[in-house]
Amino acid sequence: MNELGKRRRHLDRLRDEAGSAVAEFVMVASLLTFLTLMVMQLALALHIRNTVLDAAAEGARYATLADSSLPAGAQRTRDLITTAIGATYATNVVAQYGASAGFPTVEVRVIAPLPLMGLLGAPRGLEVVAHAAVESLD
Description:
By secondary structure, the protein is α+β, with helices and mostly antiparallel strands.
């Protein structure tokens, strides 16, 4: 085979692959975009969980103060959640007395939506519980 035939075959192979770089770029870019959005969604869900858990812990500590009460602790939790992420996440807050290792505690339970796509998601998908030891004047 002569040199001209070899060049022609090489050019034919190059023409067959024309446009493949664009297709590869689109596939890789869409995959990377999807992965980036999923990581951001996970970060949002963890942020909301941590915020709700922190508010529940603060509400439990507030309810255990000697001059406070369970409704005051639940309201403190609602106020903190509403301020930080919105009233939708503060609709189901319950404070009650309990015991841990034989000592009286306050337990604050919050049931909130779990964001799965943006802020939309499972209505009762996130449940956090916080405990705090009860203070007394004795």
